Amino acid sequence: MYYNKVEICGVDTSGLTVLKEKDKIRLLNEMKNGNKNARSELINGNLRLVLSVVQKFSNRGENMDDLFQVGTIGLIKAIDHFDTSLNVRFSTYAVPMIIGEIRRYLRDNNPIRVSRSLRDTAYRAMLVREQLQNELSKEPSVEMIASRMHAPREDVVIALEAIVDPISLYDPVYSDSGDTIYVVDQLKDKSCDGDWVDELSIKDAISKLGDREKKILSLRFLNGKTQTEVAQEIGISQAQVSRLEKAALLKIKRK
User: Among residues 22, 82, 108, 144, which one has the fewest Cβ atoms lying within 10 Å of its Cβ?
Assistant: First the structure.
């Protein structure tokens, strides 16, 4: 691998092709109809997506060739499990799968020793989580995972936390068209007491926001909901919630 990341695993990344969304859907449908070449074309046409995710882990001190190979495994899993009938962009589904595969690899190589029983429970939980995610097309709760495993909820939580690497609140989780979602955007605000509007004297600025912007800020900062929960409640994507929230806060600051 060269330091300018032109070549990884013998692949010239500067020459990687990028498939359009309509071509991805077409190839996915052809693959499901038995076209074996479509699968290979999908993998090669999405390697740049793998590269973009791998670069986010460049400060971990890991071998980038290894991470690229692991990320490609995540891409292949996404290709094999993606449901074309859902109104979701392929990259929206594939990026978390690629990140998850890389994080599992990093956990396996974690120098912190975790007992074998805890690790086995955690890996079973991750496997069940993926199964439920594919069945429900949404993120399953810990209760659902524990129920499927016939295990106490506390055991599942402890096992999963034992193998998680510490991450920064500002680590990117997903990025599409310049709208980056960070870990901090996924967290609930439990310090909200409902009085922050009066305390900051910004009632007038908020009153001039659109109804949807007001609803997003209310759900996020008064009800303490995550961006994912807000997106589900008002029927838009999480990236749109993130964009509207940032725009509304910027308007308030300007006023």
Answer: 22
Q: Alpha-carbon distance 63 to 228, whole Å?
A: 33
Between CA 199 and CA 71 the distance in angstroms is: 47
CA 35 – CA 41 distance, rounded (Å): 10
d(CA 34, CA 18): 23
Average pLDDT, the chain: 78
Please report where in the chains the tokens 């975790």 appear, as a residue.
Answer: 114
Pair 68, 58: CB distance under 8 Å? no
Please determine, for residue 108, whether its predicted confidence score (pLDDT) is greater than 60: yes
Residue 86, pLDDT > 50, answer yes
Q: Are 54 and 67 in contact (CB under 8 A)?
A: yes
Neighbours of 213 (CB within 10 A): 18
Q: Which of 159, 175, 83 is nearest to 121 (CA)?
A: 159
Calculated CA dihedral for residues 86, 90, 92, 95, nearest 10 degrees:
140
